[in-house]
Amino acid sequence: MSQPTTRVFVVDDDERVGCALTRLLRASGYHVECFDSPEAFLDRTDLASTPACLVLDLQMPGMTGLEVQHKLDQLLPIVFLTGHGDVVSSVDAMKAGAFDFLTKPVSESLMLAAIDRALKRACIEFAKRTQRAEIEERVNHLTRREREVMALVLTGRLNKQVASDLGAAEKTIKIHRARVMEKMKARSIVELVRLAEKAGVHAADDE
């Protein structure tokens, strides 16, 4: 499977800074999109469609970088840029999950290193989201009865115990269980448990 294209978003109200960063990153082989306001950036509806990171100015007119960070809710790794050396804001940003915090003017090597690390993190998180979405799609294809059977199977119950709990014939439960394993693409109960955990599906006793 080919690796998805990574992107770097740049948000800075200073046109010179935005252009300089865009030139640097494109020259280094990155796919870059630059925005001169947080509002223009947040209007994008495909921010999570590929692995991406955000280079974000801290102090901007209107919406601040910290406000953008809170709106994104850790959707993207954020590398903050500031020309003010605001220690309090940097601490707040890091506490809220900022990936890195660089003070202007920043050297090209430091910027590129931070971008590289942020995109590696983005690829890991994107793979996790993609996998979770795929597993959730499998769960969505289960019938109501199959979900009930799976929830009980996840507790370690035997077919006859599941049948007793649901008031069904053991033979019927065997059929439902086989369909659950097939639809979830699980080769064992251990794998089914792992898939359920990734999809946030709980065993019957945990509900």
From TrEMBL:
The modification 4-aspartylphosphate is found at residue 57. PROSITE patterns: HTH_LUXR_2, RESPONSE_REGULATORY. Residues 7-119 form the Response regulatory domain. It holds the Pfam family GerE. Gene3D superfamilies: 3.40.50.2300, Winged helix-like DNA-binding domain superfamily/Winged helix DNA-binding domain. Residues 135-200 form the HTH luxR-type domain. This is Response regulator. The keyword DNA-binding applies. The keyword Transcription applies. It comes from Paraburkholderia dipogonis. It comes from the Bacteria. SUPFAM superfamilies: C-terminal effector domain of the bipartite response regulators, CheY-like. Keywords: DNA-binding, Phosphoprotein, Transcription, Transcription regulation. InterPro entries: CheY-like_superfamily (IPR011006), Sig_transdc_resp-reg_C-effctor (IPR016032), Sig_transdc_resp-reg_receiver (IPR001789), Tscrpt_reg_LuxR_C (IPR000792), WH-like_DNA-bd_sf (IPR036388).
